[in-house]
Amino acid sequence: MGRLSSLRPAAGNFFRLYESHASSSLKLARNSDLKRMNGFCTKPQESHKAPTSTYSHRVPLHKPTDWEKRMLIWSGRFKSKDQIPETISFEMLDAAKNKLRVKISYVMIALTVLGCIVMIIEGKKAIKRNESLTTLNLQKKAHLREEAALKAKTE
After folding, report:
1. Please, where are the H alpha helices in 32-131?
2. Which of 28, 30, 68, 75 could lock 99 by a disulfide, CB 3.0 to 4.6 Å apart?
C-alpha cells in the first residue's frame, strides 16, 4: 500500500509535465510555419483545389444486344425498341433481368399448379373407369405371359 500511495503523486507529476510539453509544442506549431506531425517537421499543406470536371463518377455504359433489348421490353422498362437508348447502365440491365426472372418464376408456379389440377382431374376420371396402376400392371403381365406361352408352343 505504501508503494501505491507514493506512485500517485509521481504519476500526477508525470502527467502535468507531459501536458506542459504538449501545450508548448502546440504553441510552437501554431506560431510557426512548420507543424510537428509524428516527430517530423513539415510545411503546412496547401489545400488542393477540386480538379476541373475532367473526371466524374460515371457509371460504365453498355450497348444492349437484341436479346437484351427484348428483355428490357418484356420487363416493362421500355414500351418499344425505339425508346431504348444506344447505351444503358449495367444496373438497368440487371434490374430488367431480375424482374424477368421473377415473372418467369411466377409463370412456372402457375403452370405447376395447373399441371397438378389437371392430373387430379385425370386421376378422378380414371377411377370412374376402374383404371388404376395395379389393374394396368396386372393386364400388362397377363399379356406378356400369353405371348410367352405362344412362343413356347411354336418352338
Report:
1. 66-74, 90-128
2. 75
CB atoms within 10 A of CB 95: 14
Specify whether the CB–CB gap between 93 and 62 falls below 8 A: yes
Distance, in Å, from the CA atom of 105 to the CA atom of 112, rounded to the nearest integer, reads: 10
Task: List, for residues 99-123, the tens digit of each pLDDT value.
Answer: 999 999 999 999 999 999 999 999 9
End-to-end Cα spacing for the chain? 117
Q: Compute φ and ψ for 154, nearest 5 degrees.
A: -75, -20
Q: Is 94 left (phi over 0), alpha (psi -120 to 50) or beta?
A: alpha
Phi/psi for 128 (5° steps) reads: -65, -30
> What dihedral angle (degrees, nearest 10) is formed by the CA atoms of 71, 74, 76, 78?
60
Which value, to the nearest 10 degrees, does the dihedral of the CA atoms of residues 83, 94, 62, 72 take?
-20
Q: Which residue has the cell 395447373?
A: 114
Strand partners, 35: 42
DSSP H or E run through 40: strand 40-42
